[in-house]
Amino acid sequence: MKGEYQDWKVWTRGKEVFIGVDVQKEIWHVTVRAEEEGIVHGRIPSNDGVFQKLLDHVKDCKVKVASDPS
Q1: Mind spelling out the 3-state secondary structure of the chain?
Q2: What proportions of the chain, in percent to the nearest 5, are helix, strand and coil?
Q3: This prediction's pTM
Q4: Which residues of 32-59 are buried (b: 16+ CB within 10 A; e: fewer)?
Q5: d(CA 33, CA 42)
Q6: CB neighbours of residue 27 within 10 Å
Q7: What is the distance between the alpha carbons of residues 53 and 32, in angstroms, rounded to a whole number?
Q8: Assuming Cys at both sites, which of 3, 9, 32, 55 could form a disulfide with 39, CB separation 3.0 to 4.6 Å?
Q9: Dihedrals φ, ψ of 10, to 5°?
């Protein structure tokens, strides 16, 4: 997933952003959509710091997050 979201500020500017997270013990599966466009679909380590970096890319947007605590 690294490198896939370098231009998020351009892709998400002024849009409503939806982040879906499938929470697992070691890896979180993450999907990010801006309106009807898929921006990122991938995996990140199950670490709050890594997830915060993901959120920093959309800090100027209206963000909605949903998780599936399996």
Answers
A1: CCCCCCCHHHHHCCCEEEEEEEECCCEEEEEEEECCEEEEEEEEECCHHHHHHHHHCCCCCEEEEEEEEC
A2: 20, 45, 35
A3: 0.73
A4: bbbeeeebbeeebeeeeeebeebeebbe
A5: 12
A6: 13
A7: 13
A8: 32
A9: -75, -45
Cα angle for residues 45, 56, 29 (degrees, 5° grid): 30
**Domain 8-69 top-level CATH class:** alpha beta
Q: Which token pair is 44? A: 């990140």
Q: Which two tokens stand for residue 19?
A: 């982040």
Question: Per residue of the chain (70 residues), what is the pLDDT tens digit?
Answer: 444 445 665 666 778 889 999 988 899 999 988 877 777 888 999 988 988 988 888 888 888 888 776 5
Structure tokens at 15: 């849009």
